[in-house]
Write a structure and sequence with these properties.
The complex is a heterotrimer of chains A (422), B (48) and C (148). With 422 residues, chain A is mainly α. Chain A is built from 20 helices and no strands. In chain A, helix 2 packs across helix 4, helix 11 (218-245) runs parallel beside helix 20 (387-411) and helix 12 (250-260) packs parallel to helix 14. The two termini of chain A are 41 Å apart. Chain B is an all-alpha fold and 48 residues long. Chain B has one domain (2-44). Chain B is built from 3 helices and no strands. Chain B has helices spanning 2-6, 11-32, 34-44. Chain C has 148 residues and is an alpha/beta fold. Chain C has a single domain (4-147), classed as HUPs (Rossmann fold, 3-Layer(aba) Sandwich). Chain C is built from 5 helices and 5 strands. In chain C, helix 3 runs parallel beside helix 5. Chain C is globular and about 55 Å long. The chains are: A mainly alpha (422), B mainly alpha (48), C alpha/beta (148). The interface between A and C is medium-sized, with 37 and 22 residues.
């Protein structure tokens, strides 16, 4: 009973208005996304159908194999279905949809984040909604757990292994460099510590975890949080377009985002925005990354030679237990279930199976979470960035972006691609 | 001030456990009615 | 002329000049001084960042920082202003701008003294920092901003 009680906060009612707002916002945006996608598909189909029909006719004349024809006919059927969805006919165009959806990449992630930022920073959010918006953000977590159905252990070993080496290298590389340079330049331990952890692991989440340990001053924390939010948000909007421009493959982009984007909330958003394969890679590497939070805290304690940290967090085991993100266990449990290849569960691409049904749900959790993230990005917070934190943050952000890009280019697509098995 | 702090006691663990519970619920529904779950989230929720 | 002065102090370096000036003016006019220090819970709103771990420790730490900062300031101000006939120290909790303006409305103050950073270049025009906002929103009470 006490467990159930502890799962519910006594003041849970204060979360309801904000949650309803996020749900409404997510619902509207998802529908707009759906509409755009439908018309974009119809636009593509309208152009492709005559070409495929011509190709089928040619192949029939040449007496090509039945196999090839069946494949093309299947494709044709899909395109006709897409066209029929908008009651269109061949030759009719919906260029606006292709422009918005393809060229501008105006997908639900972008709409929720940009829309949220605009709403928050122009008309503002009344206070009653704020607690609920805060609680909407972690709804990404069940979405991430559900995404576990996309992986099998061989993926975890291959991509996660590569990712783990990559993230460990970048995390400890960044943290080490930032803390070392900061110490040499006479920056206070507090600021050097939180900036090292913040630019290294998970941005604001890592600052929250390390600030009490390194005894950062409030002003330093405000600077550091502002800087991380500023660069995290900047990278979220710059990297997907940069990636497209540089023709970075989806799995490569996923890895790039997972190592370079300073703030973790923004990381999944950028990868989901870029595409499904990018998201699959990013979620896995991200899982590796957030599991490193307790270790970065221990590293910080060791680096600054801190001992008196308070009763709660002394000892290696206690630090890991207190600072380990538990939900990641749910994710790996699903990966395990998927790896066992139990036919009753099926897979995300096998229609009519439980995992296929689950795969339909995750986007809604993400939409709710992104609504919360968008609505809580305040430009005023970013304006607080400044001082030394800004210098350190901009240096680390640029270095990680460039070195991360070089690293994923060298590693190549294959090692970073999630197969999903089956 | 203290009241405010007490209200958020170890909220990260609570959040994580809720995430696992929600994912479990989705798994449960998906096992018993996969088509219904799929249709709700892929069809019925899109009204335009 | 100035019977009751409100001194807004945050304990940062740039408010030292404001404190010094406040003392001089109070001596000159025999004014009573009320110092207000606002404990700004701004940092606490970040506690539930998505993967943040150790939130309880973080919130406790921020609270402890705010309280120890207020304690330090109070004891040093009590020292500095002990020669005055009347000095009091108020702790408020919330948004500094709102709290200071609320106190200006509620008390019978006739001068607000606060510190501020020296702004250079473009920031002179674009900065919308606390002293500037206090000047704008003061209910007809003169505001003295000591920038350092």
């Amino acid at each position: 009973m006490s467990f159930i009680n502890s799962m519910i906060t006594p003041d849970w009612k204060k979360f309801i208005p904000g949650l309803i707002l996020c749900a409404l916002f997510a619902f509207v945006v998802m529908n707009i996304h759906h509409l755009l996608a439908t018309y974009q598909k119809a636009d593509v189909a309208s152009v492709k159908i005559p070409k495929i029909e011509q190709r089928i006719a040619e192949l029939q004349k040449q007496g090509a194999s039945q196999e090839k024809l069946v494949l093309l006919q299947e494709n044709l059927g899909k395109l006709n279905k897409a066209l029929a969805a908008v009651h269109g006919r061949v030759g009719q165009r919906w260029k606006w949809a292709t422009f918005l959806y393809e060229t501008c990449q105006f997908k639900y992630v972008a709409m929720l984040l940009i829309g949220g930022i605009i709403i928050r920073n122009t008309i503002g959010i009344p206070k009653v909604f704020l607690p609920g918006i805060g609680i909407a953000r972690p709804l990404i977590k069940p979405g991430i757990i559900i995404l576990g159905v996309h992986y099998v252990w061989s993926d975890v070993v291959k991509v996660g292994g590569t990712g783990l080496v990559l993230t460990a290298f970048f995390i400890f590389g960044t943290a080490l460099t930032v803390m070392y340079v900061a110490k040499r330049k006479g920056v206070s331990d507090g600021l050097g510590g939180i900036m090292g952890a913040g630019t290294g692991v998970c941005g604001v989440s890592a600052i929250i975890a390390t600030a009490p340990v390194v005894k950062a001053k409030p002003l330093e924390m405000a600077y550091a949080i502002g800087t991380i939010l500023l660069f995290g948000t900047l990278m979220l909007f710059v990297m997907p377009y940069l990636g497209q421009w540089l023709h970075v493959s989806q799995p490569q982009f996923g890895a790039w985002a997972a190592i370079a984007i300073l703030n973790t909330a923004q990381l999944i958003a950028a990868a989901e925005w870029y595409g499904d394969e990018a998201r699959n890679t990013a979620v896995l590497i991200n899982a590796a990354r957030i599991m490193l939070i307790p270790f970065i805290v221990m590293y910080t304690v060791w680096f600054y030679g801190l001992k008196d940290v308070g009763k709660e967090s002394t000892g290696v085991w206690n630090t890991i237990r207190n600072k380990f993100p538990v939900f990641i266990l749910g994710f790996f449990a699903l990966v395990l279930l998927n790896s066992l290849d139990i036919s009753a569960f099926g897979g995300p691409r096998e229609a009519g199976t439980p995992f296929w049904a689950m795969n339909a749900v995750y986007k809604w959790f993400f939409a709710l979470g992104f609504a919360g993230i968008g609505l809580s990005i305040s430009i005023d917070d970013m304006k607080k960035s400044g001082g030394l934190a800004f210098l350190i943050g901009s240096g680390a952000a640029t270095a990680k972006m460039l070195l991360g890009l070089i690293a994923v280019m060298i590693i190549g697509t294959e090692l970073l691609k999630v197969t999903g098995g089956h | 001030m203290k009241e405010n702090t007490a209200g958020c006691l170890s909220s990260e663990k609570r959040e994580d456990i809720w995430a696992i519970i929600l994912a479990l619920l989705v798994l449960l529904f998906s096992v018993f009615a996969p088509d219904l779950v799929h249709d709700i989230f892929k069809k019925y929720l899109f009204i335009i | 002329m100035f019977r009751h002065i409100l001194l807004a102090a945050d304990g940062e370096d740039h408010s030292l000049l404001a404190i010094e000036l406040c003392l001089k003016i109070a001596r000159e006019f025999g004014s009573s001084v009320t110092a207000i220090h606002v404990l700004d819970p701004y940092l606490k709103q970040f506690y539930n960042e998505i993967y943040a771990q150790g939130r309880r420790e973080y919130l406790r730490y921020v609270d402890a920082c705010l309280v120890s900062c207020a304690d330090e300031l109070e004891s040093s101000l009590v020292d500095i202003f002990q020669e005055l006939p009347s000095f009091s120290f108020i702790r408020a909790y919330g948004d500094p701008e709102k709290e200071i303006i609320r106190h200006l409305h509620s008390g019978s103050y006739d001068l607000l003294i606060t510190g501020g950073k020296v702004l250079s270049g473009i920031k002179r025009i674009t900065s919308w920092n606390l002293p500037t906002r206090l000047e704008m929103k003061s209910p007809g009470i003169p505001v003295l901003v000591c920038r350092k």
